[in-house]
């Protein structure tokens, strides 16, 4: 196949997915979002598997990648519903941190234009006194940033699924056509004509 085919397009898509997943993984680590961290880790492994299968002409690996893209789309739809608080979900819950901590998305305090202010809680003194943290001036709410991240992941996954199915079908057709023309035949067709040609050659040089 040439580099303008679906195979090279799928390689480019997998590379773009890896870059997007690594970028997302960094910010999820900064926000201690353990559930997304695990999901991103699995996603990176499967995308590398799909990339390897595309480069090495391994359709089974690409099938695994295609199945995973469907799961990945479902996961990102859940993340969108979580941050938009659809279906009884709450973005302030500790669901994404497995109830281990009260951390929220890193973008909640470090989004574009956000200013973080700390104010001591009244009536509490000492070394263990706590501060109230407020974030003001955000030009874009952090939940919309997370929704845009997930939407971009869904777009990449859907396009990747389409091209993965196309590449698998092309690989399968090539294997079938290779079998049909005798690609795995231990006695190719040119062996059949070998004996008559040798006889004709010997008859040419027979003495009169």
Automatic annotation (TrEMBL):
Pfam family, one: NKAIN
Localization annotation: Cell membrane
Transmembrane segments: 34-55, 62-86, 152-171
Chief place where the protein resides: membrane
Record GO cellular component, one term: plasma membrane
Keywords: Cell membrane, Membrane, Transmembrane, Transmembrane helix
Highest taxon in the source lineage: Eukaryota
Record membrane topology: Multi-pass membrane protein
GO biological process per UniProt: regulation of sodium ion transport
Family: Belongs to the NKAIN family.
PANTHER family to which the protein is assigned, alphabetical: SODIUM_POTASSIUM-TRANSPORTING ATPASE SUBUNIT BETA-1-INTERACTING PROTEIN 4 (PTHR13084:SF5), T-CELL LYMPHOMA BREAKPOINT-ASSOCIATED TARGET 1-RELATED (PTHR13084)
Protein name listed in UniProt: Sodium/potassium-transporting ATPase subunit beta-1-interacting protein
Biological source species: Monodelphis domestica (Gray short-tailed opossum)
């Amino acid at each position: 196949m040439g580099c303008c085919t679906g195979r090279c397009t799928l390689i480019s898509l997998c590379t773009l997915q890896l870059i997007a997943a690594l970028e997302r993984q960094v910010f999820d680590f900064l926000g201690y979002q353990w559930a997304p961290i695990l999901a991103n880790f699995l996603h990176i492994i499967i995308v590398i598997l799909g990339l390897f299968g595309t480069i090495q002409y391994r359709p089974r690996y690409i099938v695994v990648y295609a199945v995973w893209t469907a799961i990945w789309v479902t996961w990102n739809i859940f993340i969108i519903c979580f941050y938009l608080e659809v279906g009884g979900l709450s973005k302030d819950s500790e669901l994404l941190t497995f109830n281990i901590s009260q951390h929220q998305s890193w973008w909640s305090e470090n989004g574009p234009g956000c200013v973080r202010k700390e104010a001591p809680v009244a009536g509490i003194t000492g070394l263990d006194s706590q501060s109230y943290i407020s974030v003001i001036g955000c030009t874009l709410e952090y939940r919309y940033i997370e929704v845009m991240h997930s939407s971009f992941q869904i777009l990449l996954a859907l396009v990747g699924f389409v091209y993965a199915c196309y590449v698998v079908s092309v690989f399968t057709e090539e294997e079938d056509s290779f079998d049909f023309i005798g690609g795995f035949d231990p006695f190719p067709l040119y062996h059949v004509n070998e004996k008559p040609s040798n006889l004709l050659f010997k008859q040419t040089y027979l003495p009169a």
